[in-house]
Amino acid sequence: MDERYFKNLEFDKIINQIVNLCDSEPGKELALSIKPYENVEKALEEIEKVNEAVSFISSYGNISFAFKKLDEILAKAKIKSSLSPGQLLSLSRFLSLAGKVKVYLRNEKEESSFLYLREYNMRLTNIKELYDKIDRAVMSEDELADDASPALKEIRRQKAQINNKIRDTLNSIIASSPKELQDPIITIRNGRYVVPVKQEYRGTFKGLIHDQSSSGATLFIEPMAVVELNNDLRQLEIKEQHEVERILAELTEDVGKHVDEINENMVVLKELDVIFAKAKYSISTDSTKPILNTKGYVNLKNARHPLISKDAVVPISIHLGESFNTLVITGPNTGGKTVTLKTVGLLTLMSMSGLNIPADEGSDVAFFDNIFVDIGDEQSIEQSLSTFSAHMTNIVKILNNVTSNSLVLLDELGAGTDPTEGAALAMSILDFLHRMNCRTIATTHYSELKQYALKNEGVENASVEFDVETLKPTYRLTIGIPGKSNAFEISKRLGLNDDVIDNAKSYITSEELKFEDILKDLENKRIEAENAKEEIEALKNQVESLRQEYEKKIKDTEREREKIIEKAREKAKKILENTKATADEIIAKLKEAEKSDKKNKLIEEARLKLKENINEMEESLKKSEIPEYKKVPKDVMPGQTLYIVPLDQTGIALSEPDKDGNVKIQAGILKMNVHISNLRETESSEEKEMEKGFAKYINEKSTNISTSIDLRGKTLEEASIEVDKYLDDAYLAGLKQVTVIHGKGTGTLRSGITRLLKMNKHVKSFRLGRYGEGEDGVTIVELKEK
């Protein structure tokens, strides 16, 4: 197909909208290549995939397919070039996404409903072992976690100890030599810990000079007491770097083993991203599944141009390819003829590209081998072509390449030249296309083409409606009736003198006037038929609505009856159980009385128990099922919410009680008269205030939360539960930063808390404590803002 025609139909704008709905960069690139498939089987398969995705989104919600290209990362891994922590983190996020999508697509209950999505799910590989290893080892874009290896953990433990010794020693020096120092601080120069010493104490302060201030007044000296410790620290840093490089090389090698699986996952997620973008587009445009055929049959029902706002677009119904193959559309300018052409062409391209279309269900679309378009002014200044020449050049190309399985869309056929010659040329072109047996839709102003369509078999007239009263088009398409010019009526409405109009009519032949009168009569009859049809449809809908309302009332009554019977059964069962228990107790007492010398006393006790039980049963039967806080209203005001006892639901009062005590009530869609004795007051304002007070109490409680939580001595499972709850409370209380105290110990609790903080939705960032904050024994957590 000539993609120039795609642009004429604005197919590129539809593609751009789908591209914007894709989540991933690779998905967007793939979506840009959307075009009609080469055969109908591929298009039908893609349509099925899209509709599975539509159903899946409706049933299980949406999911993001966002991921970045991993080609460079995988290429490095393949040649064993060590990946950086940031690259490993990107890979870890992708592996996590693949796992989430696999879980999302898993649907054991309805496997047969999503055949294509299940196939994609089978192609996805959940490489959990690699993901867990990277997740455990990589902490951030540029840092590995302590748990990446036992050796790294030990090196960092030793580093922490030496750091503490250096700081303790330097703090002691600062405390004992305040006059020699420019400031009582510890700083770093060339990777070594130093203190700022005044220039005049250079000779007395023992140590190695590493730097000086720009003025020369301050020297940054490494005291001799920490030189050896700094040396040890440097050695550990080198060891740490070697261990980090070893770990990264090992992780890179592990990635290299799974390159093929990761590549396949990328292909699957990229394709799924585009399929779900098509599905989201379908949902946003209220589109439906087209019925594709290879018979050249088009039957669009209430089709809407997808680039026109839903509020402004007027649906059209159009069919072609069964009783006629050529359709000639006539009507005024701006009446919707061109939009009709574009709608048919665009929806055909969308269907052939595996997309749903904005039309009613059951719309048929033919799968053509080519779509040819001649729409709009394609005048070329460079080629010095007139509008007519430009159109004719395009039509020549169309006629040279058209086949019996082509769709041809021609706008204003024959325009731009002498009307007589233009009309003759237009009819000849339509003759040629009709003989080729292709599907053709042409718009025109020429009345000769209206008569051409009436005379030739397989050619049909259609028109776009124009309201003479408002002098505005209605954009409605009618097949079977040619459009009337309306030139005289419009001129008359605009104030043109009757004499001028009558004189104009004298220049038209009687046959032409008679033809226009027939068209006018046909149009009036069509409008009458349409109005009658609308009235019948309205009555039909009214009857259907009444039928549904009646059936609903019957069902509601049946449900209410069942509910009452069920309540009565439960009540009777409870009474029976209580009575049985009392009877057993009385029988036991009577048996005991036979053997006892206190016979009369025990019999009297049994008699009193039996009487008490009977009284309880009678009281129970008198009790209402209505909650005690609901009372019969003394006064009813319109707008008041009331509980309706027989229906067990609430309603709104529409009137005050009449002289018989009946109140008009609306419950849902039903309006009814209910006696005031069957109404109860709903929840009181005092009870609502109590609820508000409770909410206030909860809020006050959340704001009094501590800024730290101590987990020392707890198992990882206990600590995880407590931290989750604590972070929720801290977030609700609006705390910005909190401290999690886990102690140093073996580091198991700290590692577990680190993994938990990574996944918590309230956590913005976290770090180990610094000197003076608790160091490795605490984690400082920064929370997101509410």
Automatic annotation (TrEMBL):
| This protein's encoding gene | mutS2
For this protein, the record's CDD domains field holds: ABC_MutS2, ATP-synt_Fo_b
Oligomeric state and interaction partners are given as: Homodimer. Binds to stalled ribosomes, contacting rRNA.
Q: Which residues form the Smr domain?
A: 709-784
- High-level lineage: Bacteria, Bacillati, Bacillota, Clostridia, Thermoanaerobacterales
PROSITE patterns, alphabetically? DNA_MISMATCH_REPAIR_2, SMR
Question: What is the purpose of this protein?
Answer: Acts as a ribosome collision sensor, splitting the ribosome into its 2 subunits. Detects stalled/collided 70S ribosomes which it binds and splits by an ATP-hydrolysis driven conformational change. Acts upstream of the ribosome quality control system (RQC), a ribosome-associated complex that mediates the extraction of incompletely synthesized nascent chains from stalled ribosomes and their subsequent degradation. Probably generates substrates for RQC.
Q: What Pfam family is a match for this entry?
A: Smr
- Give the coiled coil ranges: 512-623
Query: What is the protein's given name?
Result: Endonuclease MutS2
Family of the protein in this entry = Belongs to the DNA mismatch repair MutS family. MutS2 subfamily.
Q: Which PANTHER family match?
A: OS10G0509000 PROTEIN, OS10G0509000 PROTEIN-RELATED
Under Gene Ontology molecular function, one entry of this record is:
ATP hydrolysis activity
A biological process (GO) of this protein is:
negative regulation of DNA recombination
Q: Which domain of life is it from?
A: Bacteria
Q: Where does ATP bind?
A: G331, P332, N333, T334, G335, G336, K337, T338
> What are the EC numbers?
3.1.-.-, 3.6.4.-
Q: Which UniProt keywords apply?
A: ATP-binding, Coiled coil, DNA-binding, Endonuclease, Hydrolase, Nuclease, Nucleotide-binding, RNA-binding, rRNA-binding
Keyword Hydrolase listed: yes
